[in-house]
TrEMBL record:
One of its GO terms (cellular component) is membrane. It comes from Hibiscus syriacus. GO terms for biological process: xenobiotic detoxification by transmembrane export across the plasma membrane. GO terms for molecular function: antiporter activity; xenobiotic transmembrane transporter activity. It comes from the Eukaryota. It is found in: Membrane. This is Protein DETOXIFICATION.
Length: 512
């Protein structure tokens, strides 16, 4: 079964003949110049060649993206379902869970996921180059770094109540959310184990196993939430227990899958190599965290700024919340495509297939744009009907209708932009993109949004327009960088990165 699935993606060579073949693909000429792997797609010389290769690549991409999207939706739903059941327990429980999920856990989630994303570059390129034995070492190094980070972030959970009071939450909500945060510390450490395992499995295109585990976890989560929170009346404690158990279940199931032998040479057991070259690994992890966190926190800031509007703008904030809810679900699709393109680009660059990597990006951007366009068109067609699903307030409904064109444009941009970010992760551009994000988001988008919203009195529309323009500029800059990219050079850099972090250096025990 695995062999049948594997053949759909780039060929993975096994056996003695295959090993010799892999060596031929990875060898450099004596003059040190880069040579493209012989299994890269041939140059495209016409429309027929282009569409033929796009069809082949599309099958490979969706083989990864489909399960990845399903996994993202299931894991996103764990917190959403907990909020729904908390609402049945009372308004205070709902407020406590919402604040903890969006502020405390949301902040930590961004940092941990970002640091874990370093493995998308390293594991993906090493797997493409046939350095399968290093994947397990990379994962263990990431475990060491992320668990150390979790120890530091646990202070945020412990002191959540005074922190929430400091940023303006009421005493009652701060106390309840602070107590819930302490109960949620196990989830923080579950993140530190889960994200490296997820990137480890993604690099090997084992998305289906992750999707099955996430689906089972979601079903169990619903049943246990009902039983503990409503039937037994455990309230917030029950919410914390179930949410922790769900993430721990995902971790245990993924780890058992990894050590069961399904990953072959990618997992050979625990190794002391996990503690080598940690500082260099930390630097790459921090660059990944900065890049991703700047994107996640950008639109969290939109809600924060909208909350500072005058009381007359409360209706606008409610309408914005409806739009952000819809945008959040569509972004889950983008996250799945983000993971898929990261795997494809990193695998193909590691295998010295620059033309295939470039084509994969073209297919991913086109597919995501079409998905975003369809969703946007549907929202515009039904802009007078769908607001009734989210609010009974006629003013909110009217404003959501007015904001729909802006929401539609935002969806199109936010279905394309994560694909470009995934490509950047797959190619190892985290540091460069972090600087782009700082400039476009926080030096351009945020000041423009605040100026339009508060100085020019455009309210929530102005804030959103300004920050959306920051995203548009960031997307255009990434397109420009990609347009000028020398893909042969990127494949050569991937080879050097594999040597730096992979078997050559680690086997010899050289210092960085």
């Amino acid at each position: 079964m695995e062999d049948a699935k594997q053949s759909l993606l780039s060929p993975r060579l096994v056996g003695e003949d295959s090993r010799r073949r892999q060596e031929q693909l990875l060898v450099k000429p004596s003059n040190g110049s880069f040579t493209v792997g012989t299994e890269d797609i041939p140059p495209i010389n016409g429309v027929r060649d282009f569409f033929r290769e796009c069809l082949i690549e599309s099958k490979k991409l969706w083989f990864l993206a489909g399960p990845a999207i399903f996994t993202s939706i299931c894991q996103y739903s764990l917190g959403a379902i907990t909020q729904v059941f908390s609402g049945q327990d009372g308004a205070l429980s709902l407020a406590a869970v919402t604040v903890e999920n969006s502020v405390i856990a949301g902040f930590s989630f961004g940092i941990m996921l970002g640091m874990g994303s370093a493995l998308e570059t390293l594991c993906g390129q090493a797997f493409g180059a046939g350095q399968h034995d290093m994947l397990g070492v990379y994962m263990q190094r990431s475990w060491v770094i992320l668990n150390s980070t979790a120890l530091l972030l646990s202070l945020l959970y412990i002191f959540a109540a005074p922190i929430l009071r400091l940023i303006g939450q009421t005493e009652t909500i701060s106390k309840a959310a602070g107590m819930f945060s302490i109960w949620m510390i196990p989830q923080l450490f579950a993140y530190s184990f889960n994200f490296p395992m997820a990137k480890f499995l993604q690099a090997q295109s084992k998305m289906t196993a992750m999707a099955v585990i996430a689906g089972v976890a979601l079903v169990l989560h619903v049943v246990l939430s009902w039983f503990l929170m409503l039937r037994l009346g455990w309230g917030l404690v029950g919410a914390a227990v179930v949410l922790n158990m769900s993430w721990i279940f995902i971790d245990v199931a993924q780890f058992l899958y990894i050590i069961s032998g399904t990953c072959g040479p990618a997992w050979t057991g625990f190794s002391w190599k996990a503690f080598q070259h940690l500082w260099g690994f930390v630097r790459l992890s921090l660059a990944s965290a900065v890049m991703l966190c700047l994107e996640i926190w950008y639109f969290m800031a939109l809600i924060l700024f909208a909350g500072y509007l005058k009381d007359a703008e409360v209706v606008s904030v409610d309408a914005l919340s409806v739009c952000m809810n819809i945008l959040g679900w569509t972004i889950m699709i983008s996250f799945g495509m983000n993971a898929a393109i990261s795997v494809r680009v990193s695998n193909e660059l590691g295998a010295r297939h620059p033309r295939t990597a470039k084509l994969s990006l073209v297919v991913a951007v086109t597919s995501s744009f079409m998905i975003g366009a369809v969703i946007s068109i549907v929202l515009i067609i039904f802009r007078n009907e769908y607001p009734y699903l989210f609010s009974n307030d006629s003013q909110v409904q009217r404003l959501v209708t007015e904001l729909t064109p802006l929401l539609a444009l935002c969806i199109i941009i936010d279905t394309v932009q994560p694909v470009l970010s995934g490509m950047a992760i797959g190619a190892g551009w985290q540091t460069a993109v972090a600087y782009v994000n700082i400039a476009c988001y926080y030096l351009f988008g945020v000041p423009l949004g605040l100026t339009l919203g508060f100085v020019l009195h455009m309210g929530v529309k102005g804030i959103w327009c300004g920050m959306l323009l920051g995203t548009v500029v960031q997307t255009c800059v990434l397109f420009g960088i990609i347009y000028k990219t020398n893909w042969n050079k990127e494949a050569s850099i991937a080879e050097e990165r594999i040597k730096k972090w992979g078997g050559d250096i680690d086997a010899q025990g050289e210092e960085e």
